[in-house]
Amino acid sequence: MLIATLAATMRQDQVDRLAIVVDVRSREQFEQLPQALAAVKAQGDQVTSVFLEASDDVIVQRQESNRRPLPLQGGDRLIEGIERERRLLADLRAGADIVVDTTRLSARQLVQRIANHFGDEAADKLKISIISFGFKNGVPIDADMVFDVRFLPNPFWIPELRPKSGLSRDVAQYVLKHEAAQKFQEHMIELLETVTPGYLAEGKRQVTVAIGCTGGKHRSTSMSEELSTRLRDRGSPPRCCTGIWGRNDPPPPPEDRRARRRSRPLRLAQRPAPGDRPAHRRRDGRRRRRLVGSAP
Predict the structure, then answer these.
(1) Strand, coil or helix: what is 254?
(2) Which of 168, 221, 279, 283 is most exposed, with the fewest beta carbons within 10 Å of its own?
(3) What's the alpha-carbon Rg for the chain, to the nearest Å?
(4) Cβ distance 206 to 147 under 8 Å?
C-alpha cells in the first residue's frame, strides 16, 4: 500500500517526520488502512493517527458552501451520505490516538490544535527571509515588512565606493558607522521580536523582510547583511537574500545609453527626404496648400 511504501522511502531518505492525509475517496487503499498502519508499526516506526470530525449540521453547511456532493452520497440526500461515512469510519475513530472535533474550530484554531500535539522547538520558531531591493525597481510583492533606509548617507556619491556593493567591507563600514544605522537596526530587531509571538499564534511560520534604498546596491545590502548577522547571533538564523530585486530586464548600463544617444543623429539623418515620401503623402500636401491658397 502507499503508506507502507512512503514509510520505507522515509527511512531510506532519513526523513524524521511524514504526514499522510486519507479519506474515503481513497477507496481500496482506505479499506487497507488498518493493515497498513499495523505493518508500519511492526517495522518499529511510531505512528500517531488523528481523526477529524464535525457535527452533521456543520458538515451540511460546509458541503453547501463548497457545492460538492459527499463521496458516498451518490444520488441520495446529503444527510444519508454523512451517515454512511460515519459507519465506515467508526472503527478508525475508535482506534485513533487523537480525535479533534472541528465543529466550532476555525482554520487557525485547528492549526494551533495540531501544533500543540506535534509541534517542537524548531517548528515554533519564525523563519525570516531578508532581501534587499531598490525602490526604483519597485517593492517586492511578497514582502511582509518593508524598511526604507534612504535616510542614510549614500555611498554612491563616494567615488571609490561607487563601483562596490554593500557586501564589501568598505561600503558596510561607511553605512554602519552612522548612529542612525545602528539605532535603526535595534528598532528592526525590536519590531521582529514584538510581532513574532503574534505571527506564530496566527499560524504564520515565515516572514519576508525587505530593506530598500534607491538602487538596492549599497545601503540596503549592508543593512540586510547586518540584520542577518544580529538575528543569527540571537539564535534566529534567517535566510538572507541580498542583491538588487527588481524587474527581469534591468536598466542598461550608462555606456549603452551614451551609445544610443550618439547614434540618434545618425538615425535622424537616415530619415527619407521630402521628395522620397510616398506619392499619396505628397498629394495630400499639395491639396492642403491649394485649399489654403483659395481661402478668401
Answers:
(1) helix
(2) 279
(3) 33
(4) no
- Residue tagged 466550532 (cell numbers): 104
In the block, cell 460546509 appears at 62
Q: Other CB atoms closer than 10 Å to residue 82's CB: what's the count?
A: 19
Place of cell 482506505: 30
pLDDT score of 253 more than 60:
no
Name which residue leads in pLDDT, 221 or 26.
221
The answer, yes or no, to whether residue 144 has pLDDT greater than 60, is yes
Q: Scan for cell 519576508, then name that residue.
A: 208
Q: Can you name the residues that pair with 207 across neighbouring β-strands?
A: 128
Give the CA distances from residue 16 to residues 19, 121, 152, 184, in Å, rounded to whole numbers and listed in that order.
11, 14, 46, 40
Output the nine-digit C-alpha cell for 174. Answer: 561607511
Q: How far apart are CA 159 and CA 171, in angstroms?
A: 12
Per-residue model confidence as pLDDT tens digits over 25-69: 766 666 777 777 787 778 777 888 899 999 999 988 888 887 777
Using the CB atoms, write b or e for 276-286: b if 16+ within 10 Å: eeeeeeeeeee
Arithmetic mean of pLDDT over the chain: 76
- Between the alpha carbon of residue 234 and those of residues 68, 180, 190, 193, 217, the distances in Å are 49, 21, 12, 11, 26
Residues paired with 133 in a beta bridge:
212
